[in-house]
Amino acid sequence: MARHPDMRFARPLLRLPIKFSADRLESEVNALPASAWTAHPQRFQGNSAVRLITAGGEPTDVIEGAMAPTPYLAQLPYVMQIMERIGSVWGRSRLMALAPGAEVPAHIDSHYYWRTHIRIHIPVVTNPGVLFTCGEETVHMEAGECWVFDSFLRHEVHNRGTETRVHLVIDTVGGGQLHDLIESAETGTRDSQFVEPSESPGTRLVFEQVNVPQIMSPWEIRCHVDFIMSNANSNPNLLPVKKRIERFIDEWAALWAQFGADEGATGAYGPLLAAARHDLLNLGADKVPLTNGISLQHIFDRLIVEAALRGATRPQARPAAAGSALRKAS
């Protein structure tokens, strides 16, 4: 199946041609102490997690900073073997549990982290009542399977069964054989491979050390803007908004030619962000819808305004309205 130019994958949900021992995974997870489990960062009822890879290996849910394993990962040798076999550079990763009757509410992942990462789901314990919906597609993921999905589409998970669902959820920017697995899943040109449990845990794991720019380059900004524009629906405000963004990129590139990523130059870059955001609001960028239903202003704020200057004082993005489906994913 050909990939639509505005979609990350050929389908909203994609099962990769690789499988793992659900029994071995379940036995390792069951051996973890009850104290390993912590509440969901946003306190979604019935959602809990075990932190496996975090910033600095600390008990935190932040998504910026050099990533390192927590002590719990060392207690899961087959999980480490799986990660080593896929061979990617690993970001924040967890075991995620969903109690009977619980849900992950419908949302869209619009944060910079999700623009740059792929989330891999490997069911450990599940039941037929667990359904994952992304875009217009709904699937039940079987234990031991390996899935990726397009998090820029609206997605949600429901556990309508009587057993707690547990997934291994590992985030990555890519690397290893992940690209080949995705390509094979899209084209159907590869039989599924099974990874037998080994007594030797994965010891050659690589963890991301850089995951946010100190100062975003104009080329990265251009990449994000092209992505935004490819997802923008027709709207009378779109042309003036696009022209203002083009001017912003040119001004940013001029500063980049002068200062580059010199952290001492944040005082020069900051006013450009503030002026661009102010003008885009006045031009009605918040009235320009993207194909997934969120506004152009919202995604510009998340991908560029909030991420272009790490640690600097940034113009405040407008928060989503109470009850909105545009929750910040964690």
Helix amount, in percent?
25-40%
For the secondary structure, the number of strands is 15
Portion of residues in beta strands equals 15-25%
Structural class: alpha+beta
Largest sheet: 9 strands, mixed
Task: Give the helix tally.
Answer: 8
- Low-confidence spans: pLDDT under 50, at least 5 residues? 1-5, 317-330
Distance between the termini: 31 Å
Mean pLDDT over the residues: 91
Net shape: globular
How large, in whole angstroms, is the Cα Rg? 21 Å
| String of helices and strands | EEHEEEHEEHEEEEEEHEEHHHH
Write a brief structural summary.
By secondary structure, this protein is an alpha+beta fold. It has eight helices and 15 strands. The strands form three sheets. Strands 1, 3, 4, 5, 6, 8, 11, 13 and 15 form a nine-stranded mixed sheet that branches. A four-stranded antiparallel sheet has the order 7-12-9-10, with no helix packed on it. Strands 2-14 form a two-stranded parallel ribbon.
